[in-house]
Each structure stands twice: as structure tokens, then as C-alpha cells.
């Protein structure tokens, strides 16, 4: 089980490196990309995003360690849309970058990280939280209470 969950602090560059490294791992896995695929632009832009968004509070990230060994991560981005009847504040959050090292999976680590992120969103008055789920992650999110939306569309 987790011995130490650490909330990422912006000024700790070693944690920023770990977070960006994890982001690339997650993107490679979710998109079924080989290690040969060039991700240098994504990596560079991820550093820029995290520096700005962590400092402004638009993003929260958790890095999870077991006796000093990095084993997982999760992130939450906040954004604003026009107020609606179902979301009168217009505040929304998007969960991303959920990751657990393979040897630590199925031990509740991702569920606990997800719970931390959802609670952070609720503390900031966010009632609408979304995410994209891989086939591997879908059961976790469904267990937590996330449901598939049928009315949203995306231009590709």
C-alpha cells in the first residue's frame, strides 16, 4: 500500500520532471505508441503547461511513492465555462494523467488518488468532473461513480 502520497509543489523541479515523465508514459500507453515515437514537442509543451498551471492553481497533481519509489500519479485541471442550469457556477474539472506502476496495480492506489483529486475539486466548488477512460481504467472510474456520457460530441 501507499506509504507516502505527496502533493506536487511547483518549486520542486525534481517532481516536475517526474510528472512530465509520467505524462509521456501515460500518453504512450493510451495511444499505443512505441518508445521510438518522437514525443519531444509534447514533452516541451507539458513542461510549459505544468509550470504555468501549477503556479496559477489551474492544475493539481499528486505523485505517489512507496518508500521513496515513484509508483503513481494523477492530475486535475480546472476550467471555466458559461454557467448553465445544471452547473450555475460554470466551474469544471478534468481528471488526467492517472497512472500506477504495473506491479502496484489492483491495490487501491489509483482509487485513492482519484478520491484525492475529486475531493480537491469539490473543495473548490466544482460539481462537474470529467475524464477520458482507457479500457483498463474504465472499471475503476465506474466503481467510483463515473458514467459514460451520450450527449457530448467532438470535432475530429
Task: Tell me what the structure shows.
- The protein has a 5-stranded mixed beta sheet, with helices on both faces.
- A hairpin with a 2-residue loop joins β2 and β3 (69-80).
- It has a single domain (4-144), classed as Aminopeptidase (3-Layer(aba) Sandwich).
- The N and C termini lie far apart (40 Å).
- Mean pLDDT is 88; it is low at 1-12.
- The protein has 156 residues and is an alpha+beta fold.
- It has helices at 13-30, 40-56, 109-123, 138-144, and strands spanning 4-7, 59-66, 69-80, 91-100, 128-131.
- α1 (13-30) crosses α2 (40-56).
Distance between the termini: 40 Å
The radius of gyration over CA amounts to 16 Å
Based on CA inertia axes, which overall geometry fits?
A: globular
Query: How many structural domains in the coordinates?
Result: 1
Order of helices and strands: EHHEEEHEH
Beta-strand content estimate = 15-25%
Secondary structure tally: strands:
5
CATH architecture: 3-Layer(aba) Sandwich
- Largest sheet, spatial ordering of strands: 1-2-3-4-5
Q: What's the CATH C level? A: Alpha Beta
Q: Uncertain spans, ≥5 residues at pLDDT below 50?
A: 1-12
- Structural class comes to alpha+beta
Q: Helical stretch count?
A: 4
Characterize the main sheet.
5 strands, mixed
Fraction of helical residues: 25-40%
The mean pLDDT is 88
CATH H-level name... which superfamily? Gcn5-related N-acetyltransferase (GNAT)
Amino acid at each position: 500500500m501507499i506509504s507516502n502520497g505527496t502533493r506536487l509543489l511547483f518549486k520542486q523541479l525534481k517532481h516536475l520532471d517526474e510528472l512530465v515523465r509520467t505524462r509521456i508514459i501515460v500518453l504512450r500507453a493510451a495511444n499505443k505508441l512505441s518508445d521510438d515515437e518522437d514525443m519531444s514537442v509534447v514533452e516541451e509543451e507539458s513542461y510549459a503547461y505544468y509550470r504555468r498551471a501549477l503556479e496559477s492553481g489551474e492544475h493539481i497533481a499528486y505523485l505517489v511513492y512507496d518508500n521513496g519509489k515513484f509508483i503513481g500519479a494523477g492530475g486535475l485541471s480546472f476550467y471555466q465555462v458559461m454557467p448553465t442550469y445544471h452547473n450555475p457556477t460554470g466551474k469544471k474539472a478534468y481528471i488526467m494523467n492517472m497512472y500506477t506502476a504495473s506491479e502496484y496495480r489492483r491495490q487501491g492506489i489509483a482509487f485513492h488518488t482519484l478520491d484525492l483529486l475529486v475531493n480537491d475539486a469539490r473543495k473548490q466548488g466544482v460539481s462537474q468532473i470529467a475524464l477520458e477512460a482507457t479500457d483498463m481504467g474504465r472499471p475503476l472510474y465506474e466503481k467510483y461513480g463515473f458514467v459514460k456520457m451520450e450527449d457530448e460530441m467532438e470535432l475530429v
